[in-house]
Amino acid sequence: MVIKIHYFKDTLLEKPREKASRLGMSSLSDVELLALLLETGDKHENVLELSNRYLKEKGGLSGVFSKEEKELLAFGVKKAKVFRLLAVKEVLVRLPLSKGNKIPDSDTAFEKSKYFFLGRKTESLLVFYLSANKNLIKQESFNFCEISQVYIPIKAIIKEAMKEEANSVILLHNHTSGSLVPSRDDEKNTKEISFKLKGLGILLLDSLIVFENEYASLRKLQPSLFDQ
After folding, report:
1. What distance lies between CA 138 and its chain's CA centroid?
2. How does pLDDT run across 174-205, given as a tens digit for each residue?
3. Most buried by CB count within 10 Å: which residue of 11, 114, 130, 162?
4. What is 106-225's CATH number, 1.10.10.200, 3.40.50.1240, 3.90.1150.10, 3.40.140.10?
């Protein structure tokens, strides 16, 4: 059986929609994924060329989704496409993880939380409640009005952990400044909630500080906060 591959006119660039149909979405590069969202190019560039140029200028997909509407428009992306990109971002933010997803370590927790924190201008907190097998029981989020301050609702988290019969908890919050250095409040809150959870037989696996494509683990930086 001969499989026909569809290319853009006068190029050897395969069309992303047809490629996805043939090989699945996971086969697409970041450029091809963005091209699917934009759908069409212009008279000077096909959609893959436009997407490639845009990603190079913005430093990858995170740069695309972290910019404001006016910056996208200034680049020359049509308004309808801008709203399509922003809508995709909002869907990704709102879409919770499925109950039962395994979160075995801090790396996985960070990967699963990326879209929640993407482009946020105020600090937010995300809590993963896990079973003994480190499967997700529930995720809970808290958003704050302050640009650079997270209030950890320790009592609420402990209450929810007990209600859900969680075996362990992972905390994640962003630093809008871009710094991954834990503040004194980060250290104090981590120490307090770790101590109180441990008294109930619940482990605080880690407390992560997130910014774009990086994170810092307080368990790695300051393990003494967890070893009371």
Report:
1. 17
2. 988 889 999 999 999 999 999 999 999 999 99
3. 130
4. 3.40.140.10
